[in-house]
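Aim 2 progress. For GNAT family N-acetyltransferase, the working sequence is reproduced below.
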Amino acid sequence: MIRNIRPEDREAYLAMSDAFYHSEAVLHPVPLEVQARVFDEAVSSDVYLEVFFLEEEGKTAGYAVINKSFSSEIGGRIVWIEDLFIKPEFRSHGLGRTFFAYLEDRFAGTVKRFRLEADFSNTRAIALYKRLGFEELPYLQMVKDRP
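Predicted structure tokens for this construct:
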């Protein structure tokens, strides 16, 4: 089952998010206070982002974060899959594939592109994304953080 997070999910979300942002799937750790701001935004509004819990047999198996925006490159709405974390004991159960099918159904006819990033070392995730039709982009992405 896939559901939006609720206020009472804070502790479970922060534990999984912290595990994700201290794993080999990411380039660098993200402070817990930043992860807490993501949670707070998600429970207060779904305009910019949504956080989902992935559940299996009534147990929390993982989480996902999506961001929504408009792209001038394709002239339409896009969904960024920012985080997708599956607890180790639930991996290879098809939850990633199920989550992407959920997104395809939910945003059918309204979104022009799904987009995500993956660390090059995360080969299992990259293989899944390619099987699902994602393609590599041949250009550099850059960021400038602000306080």
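The longest helix spans residues 32-44. This observation will guide construct design in the next reporting period.
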